[in-house]
Amino acid sequence: MKVLVTGANGLLGQHLIRQLVEEGKFTIHATGKGESRLPYGTGNGVTYHQLDLTDFKKAQALVEKISPHIIIHAAAMTQPNECAADKTACWKTNVGATRVMVKGAQKAKSYFIYVSTDFVFDGAEGPYDEHAGPNPINDYGESKLLGEEIVEMSGLHWAIVRTALVYGDKVPGGRPNFVLWVKDKLQAGEPIKVVNDQYRTPTYVDDLAKGILLIVMKHAKGIYHISGKDMCTPYQLAVMIAQMTGKDERLIEPVTAETFEEPAKRPPKTGFIITKAVKELGYVPLKLEEGLKKVLHL
Ligand SMILES: NC(=O)c1ccc[n+]([C@@H]2O[C@H](COP(=O)([O-])OP(=O)(O)OC[C@H]3O[C@@H](n4cnc5c(N)ncnc54)[C@H](OP(=O)(O)O)[C@@H]3O)[C@@H](O)[C@H]2O)c1
After folding, report:
1. Burial category of 176 from C-beta neighbours within 10 Å (exposed 0-12, middle 13-18, buried 19 and up)
2. What is the DSSP string of 48-108?
3. What's the rounded mean pLDDT across residues 41-52?
4. What pLDDT score was predicted for residue 45?
5. Which of 117, 123, 192, 245 could disulfide-pair with 268, CB 3.0 to 4.6 Å?
6. Ligand 1 atom nearest 73 alpha carbon
7. What's the CA dihedral at 93, 11, 182, 145 to 10 degrees?
8. What confidence tens digit (pLDDT) does each residue in 15-46 have?
9. CB–CB of 14/38 below 8 Å?
10. Can you spell out the DSSP letters for 137-172?
11. Quick one: which atom of ligand 1 is closest to the CA of 118?
12. What is the mean pLDDT of residues 117-139?
């Protein structure tokens, strides 16, 4: 079974490729914008293709050449502030490239899995299930929602995986995720300000990859919310990290989102109800404390 994974160099991508390799059932084509940061050479079923997906002609040609049975489209401009600063690039990457991947999938008749975000919601009434109506409040969320709509209207066999606040072991060349950022700051004894008026259901990256694998195996169709099940504020999460690593939690100052002047607004209360994924896919995420133990190597 041939699978094409975009965004393979990213936090999710690297963990997902590892799980796909371990599954042993797939011929894997991985793409990223930069050079491969995957810890694989040749001979283990992974072929890496360096490609900027906003080069639409080349992107479509690659999909048609590979003609994958499955496409997992995880590549995106993922930072809301960067999307706000460069809307054109954000739209080209998150909407244009998704359209092109879908076009390629239509020719190849691929099963299309699109990775999306809790930021498609406005955060007024979280936690959200799959029936909730999206209403993004920043460019990143809007562009990802447009990507979802392209997938839904494609006529393909498709699944959309929405996830939230992903954390996990740092991947080569990747930026530190929130959990590792807090750990490093506390380790260095640096005071940090962390918002205490936003709510999320943090997601351990290996759980997310497992959830996607379950979708692949079950050939599931539709929208799935795949996250952790425990809801907390980033401040509460930071305090948990301090307590678990024996660091001084007084270094963490709880603040409101208004403290930071950011170009992109953040939805206050998102988080997911994951009942559908649990019932239909058998998805069982780690408890937040267990996930943190893995990442903090405790
Ligand atoms: N992380 C989270 O908290 C979170 C939360 C909700 C949803 N998501 C969604 O989950 C998915 C994966 O996120 P992630 O955290 O793994 O993101 P990430 O670490 O930022 O990785 C995204 C990857 O996309 C690739 N990419 C960006 N622009 C590209 C382009 N023009 N052409 C080709 N590749 C391009 C990058 O490749 P290079 O590294 O080679 O440049 C990068 O490795 C995204 O769709 C995101 O929207 C993430």
Report:
1. middle
2. EEE--TTSHHHHHHHHHHH--SEEEE------HHHHHH-HHHHHIIIIIHHHHHHHHHHHH
3. 85
4. 85
5. 123
6. 45
7. 40
8. 999 999 999 999 999 999 999 999 876 567 89
9. yes
10. -SHHHHHHHHHHHHHHTS-S-EEEEEE-SEE-SPPT
11. 6
12. 98
Q: Give the separation between CA 268 and CA 262, rounded to whole angstroms.
A: 14
pLDDT digits (tens, 9 = 90+) for 60-86: 999 999 999 999 999 999 999 999 999
Which ligand 1 atom sits closest to the C-alpha of 208? 10
**Ligand 1 centroid – CA 62 distance (Å):** 19
Q: What is the pTM of this model?
A: 0.98
Is the minimum distance from the CB of 143 to ligand 1 under 6 angstroms? no
pLDDT at 172 over 90: no
Q: How many CA atoms lie within 13 A of 95 on its CB side?
A: 15
